[in-house]
């Protein structure tokens, strides 16, 4: 798996969302919360990269950018495949699927204090052998777990 080659990634979804101003009191604006984002895309690849950016107020140092969860639809309704995973600002967040055989959708929750959101979702689409991909994913997961 070559995660560092740009041609191995395909932009699947991109959106910029401003929060709406509800009220202005004095010089302070109060905004609505940005609702969870559910791209109308069914993903079938094991690896996604998600980038989230927002305007950070002067003097603030934000790192947290919300969370992502994977789900699938069934006759019983929406079934979440795994727990929410945190996302971080100004970087590509690697989201790795544990199950390569299940197609899925994603839901991204944006922090309530964001007044805008620029989101991009990329899918890893290199023509790698599935066994090599699974082996590489296990190595990546092992490194991530050992850092916790």
Radius of gyration: 17 Å
- Number of separate structural domains: 1
Largest sheet: 4 strands, antiparallel
Q: What is the chain-wise order of helices and strands?
A: EEEEEEEEEEH
Number of helices: 1
Query: What is the β-strand count?
Result: 10
- CATH top level assignment: Mainly Beta
CATH architecture label name = Sandwich
Lateral arrangement of strands in the main beta sheet: 1-10-4-8
Strand content: 35-45%
Named CATH topology = Jelly Rolls
Distance between the termini: 23 Å
Low-pLDDT residue spans: none
Structural class: mainly beta
The percent of residues in helical segments reads: 10-25%
The overall pLDDT average reads 84
Q: What sort of overall outline do the alpha carbons produce when their principal axes are compared?
A: globular
Record keyword descriptors for this entry:
148 residues, mainly beta, Jelly Rolls, four-stranded antiparallel β-sheet, 10 strands, 12% helix, globular
How would you explain this protein's 3D organization?
The chain is mainly β. The protein has a single domain (10-147), classed as Jelly Rolls, CATH 2.60.120.1300. Helices cover 12% and strands 43% of the residues. It has one helix at residues 130-147; strands at 9-18, 21-25, 28-31, 47-53, 64-74, 77-80, 85-88, 92-96, 105-109, 116-124. A four-stranded antiparallel sheet has the order 1-10-4-8, with no helix packed on it. Strands 5, 6, 7 and 9 form a four-stranded antiparallel sheet that branches. It has a two-stranded antiparallel ribbon with strand order 2-3. A hairpin with a 2-residue loop joins β5 and β6. The protein is globular and about 60 Å long. It starts with 8 loop residues before the first strand and ends with a helix.
